[in-house]
Amino acid sequence: MKEIRLGLKENWQQFVWLVLVNCFVGGMVGLERTVVPLVGMEEFKIGSDLFIFSFIIAFGVVKAITNLVSGALADRYTRKKILIAGWLVGLPVPFMLAWGPTWAWIIASNVLLGISQGLAWSMTVNMKIDLVGPKKRGFAMGLNEAAGYGAVGLTALATGYLASRYGLRPAPFYIGILYTIAGLLLSIFVVSDTRRHAKLESTSISTTTSGEKAHKPNLSWVFRETSFRNKNLFAVSQAGLINNLNDGMSWGVFPLLFVAAGVGLEGVGWIKAIYPVVWGAGQVITGPLADRIGRKPLIVWGMFVQAFGHIVIGLELFEPLYAGLFGSVLLGIGTAMVYPALLAAVSDAAHPSWRASSLGVYRFWRDIGYAMGAVMAGIVANLLGLVWAVHVAGIVTFISGVVVWVKMKETMRPEAVTVRAKI
Fold this sequence. Notes:
Blueprint: E1 4-5, H1 12-33, H2 36-43, H3 49-52, H4 54-77, H5 79-90, H6 93-99, H7 103-132, H8 137-166, H9 174-189, H10 195-204, H11 219-229, H12 231-260, H13 265-293, H14 296-314, H15 320-349, H16 355-384, H17 386-407, E2 420-421
Antiparallel strand pairs: 1-2
Helix pairs in contact: 1-7, 1-8, 1-9, 4-5, 4-7, 4-16, 5-7, 5-9, 6-7, 6-9, 7-8, 7-10, 8-13, 8-15, 11-12, 11-16, 12-13, 12-15, 12-16, 12-17, 13-15, 14-15, 14-17, 16-17
């Protein structure tokens, strides 16, 4: 039987294929960033901000719930099977976005997209963590999220360009058809399962840096431990939720806010693209940095940088286009700081024997943030105007950073261990 070894160098080929797969996974979310809110406003003539943001709420809630069960499903059916299932569920999405005759079709497509993302993105995260072991965990998460969110941003830019040239539908969504076919074929024929790597690491760690031991708990126990009983995991989970609250708010608010301020579709496309592109590319740096200086400093200061980005946009310190671009750069930098560090911190604190389930719980709370951000933005925008949604997001982001500062202890192991075995 083939020798199983942990490490990036030892598993670089599979790691590269998973990075490519996650580019296609992220690109599916990027399809919606620029165009879909404008489809609701201009094509379907929806006047309520909260109703327009309903597609984000549907996506966030469904993705969060799918994240919650994805780890348990992976342990039962293997990581690869769940990855393939994610792509199969996502196949109808670009067709529904391109030709759906009513807004209900757009919401239904986001239900499918949420399931697809919850399965596929969760598996690319778990599989990379399985492959690299504890030594390069931050680096692995940096590359994974860089690939996914870099594709989100570039696709948002591409759809904005296509929409300005050929209309809001269907041209911008042709890209999604290519993504789903390529991602599915790679997942079936190229990607290998990694569950044996996780079993190998589990045999080498008796207790995590948070004192967690090896055992086989049920999902209810893992949910309580990750959500509130373990102080480190609680701090990480609430920071993930607020981080994606920002993303959910910006997803719905920014296109409407900047179009109303006189920014054209291409300009909106740049604003929507620069946030995830900086977010994605920055993680190539912040992921390894999390392995050098620890997880906590990046999480705390990343939340504070995001709060400053909201100030730049909300107070309109520059012309609308430049305020949007500069503020989005700050949001991207701040998110790049926290994202790999948050995932690495969960992986540090949860024992490998139940890590996949704990990551699922963390990603449940994180992606509920999409829905909470959209709900908050819709209510605040209807009552006080779109810009106040930006202000509120900035305030809660700053508070979240303070919570991590007070509650979290550093989770990174002081030394790394190289493990080899035959399983």
